[in-house]
Every structure is written in C-alpha cells, then in structure tokens.
C-alpha cells in the first residue's frame, strides 16, 4: 500500500511541476512578445470656393512655431508665412482673439507681439486685410509676427496662444 501511495504522490508531484512549467512558459513568453505600432493621424482641409484664409506653404503653421533669441542684437526672430485669402462676395477681414504677447509667468516681463497681415496690423478689432477687388479672385498676403520691445530683465521660457479670426467683409 505504501508503494501505491508513493506512486500516487509522485504522479501528483509530476502533474504539479508540469502544470507550473506550462504556466511559467506561457507567462514568460508574453513578457518577451514584441510589439509594433504605427500611430497615424490625418487631417485634411478643403476650403470653400467662396471664402477661405489659409497658409500657403505650411498647412500646420501655428502649431509649433519658435522665435529664436539673438544674443547679439537682443531680439527675437520673426515668423513670416504667406496666406492665401479669398472672398467671392467682398473683402476679407481679420482680428486677433486672445492675448498676442509672449508670457513667461511674470506679467511684468510680457513681450508684446506685433501681428501684421500684409500692411494691416491686427488687433482685437476686425480690420480689412484684402479689399473686395483683390479678394474676389484670391490674393496672397504675408503674415508677419514679430516681437515688440523686450522688457529689461526678461528671462525664461515664453509662450503665446492666440487665434487669428478671418471673416468675410461687406
């Protein structure tokens, strides 16, 4: 009888070891499994044939722009981007929504931004940026964003976040 019990215990021991090894093999193979991903984000803008205002060469303009600081001139570089404007029924107007200044957390060190489209300086008030005669067929205007006077003692990382709103004029 003792030999029978011994065989049963040995058999059960072998089953436990085998089951454990299988579980270990399955678990460890998932640890070493390779993963491959391909994140794809696509956007597309097809403008109306009657009204649009969009960057010409760089559709993503405005998403991650950098103004470099020149330590010799003590000035920030400008951002210049051509925009194509069209309004088949009249002029094109534009205004700034938000704060057009660079901010580093200390309001005394804000750096004003001068935002021009063509010869028009944009503010919070809507202004004509393309006259009726040229806007009806489409016109290209340069958007020029430059820094105003940098306050004395201004240091740190700066950022700005504003929107240029384009609207059809009369």
What does this entry look like structurally?
This protein is of the alpha+beta class. The protein has 2 domains: 1-36; 51-168, Sandwich (Immunoglobulin-like), CATH 2.60.40.2040. It contains 2 helices and 10 strands; from the N terminus they run H-E-E-E-E-E-E-E-E-H-E-E. The chain has helices at 2-31, 132-135; strands spanning 51-55, 69-70, 75-76, 79-87, 92-103, 111-117, 120-121, 127-130, 139-147, 159-168. The strands form 2 sheets. Strands 1, 4, 5, 6, 7, 8, 9 and 10 form an 8-stranded antiparallel beta sheet that branches. The relative contact order is 0.19.
> What is CATH's topology name of the largest domain?
Immunoglobulin-like
Q: So, the CATH homologous superfamily of the largest domain?
A: CFA/I fimbrial subunit E, pilin domain
Structural class: alpha+beta
Our count of helices gives 2
Distance, first to last CA = 106 Å
DSSP strand content:
35-45%
Question: Residue-averaged pLDDT, rounded?
Answer: 84
Which sheet architecture does the biggest sheet show? 8 strands, antiparallel
Number of strands: 10
Q: Quick one: overall form?
A: flat
> Helical percent range?
10-25%
């Amino acid at each position: 009888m003792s030999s029978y019990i011994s065989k049963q215990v040995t058999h059960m021991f072998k089953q436990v070891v085998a089951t454990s090894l299988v579980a270990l093999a399955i678990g460890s193979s998932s640890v070493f499994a390779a993963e491959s991903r391909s994140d794809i984000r696509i956007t597309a803008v097809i403008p109306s044939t009657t009204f649009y205002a969009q960057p010409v060469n760089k559709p993503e303009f405005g998403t991650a722009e950098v103004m470099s600081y020149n330590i010799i001139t003590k000035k920030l570089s400008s951002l210049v981007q051509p925009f194509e404007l069209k309004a088949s029924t009249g002029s094109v107007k534009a205004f700034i929504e938000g704060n057009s200044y660079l901010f580093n957390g200390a309001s005394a060190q804000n750096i004003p931004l001068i935002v021009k489209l063509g010869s028009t300086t944009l503010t919070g008030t809507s202004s004509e940026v393309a006259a009726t005669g040229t806007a009806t067929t489409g016109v290209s205007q340069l958007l020029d964003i430059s820094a105003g006077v940098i306050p004395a003692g201004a240091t740190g990382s700066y950022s700005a976040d504003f929107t240029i709103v384009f609207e059809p004029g009369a």
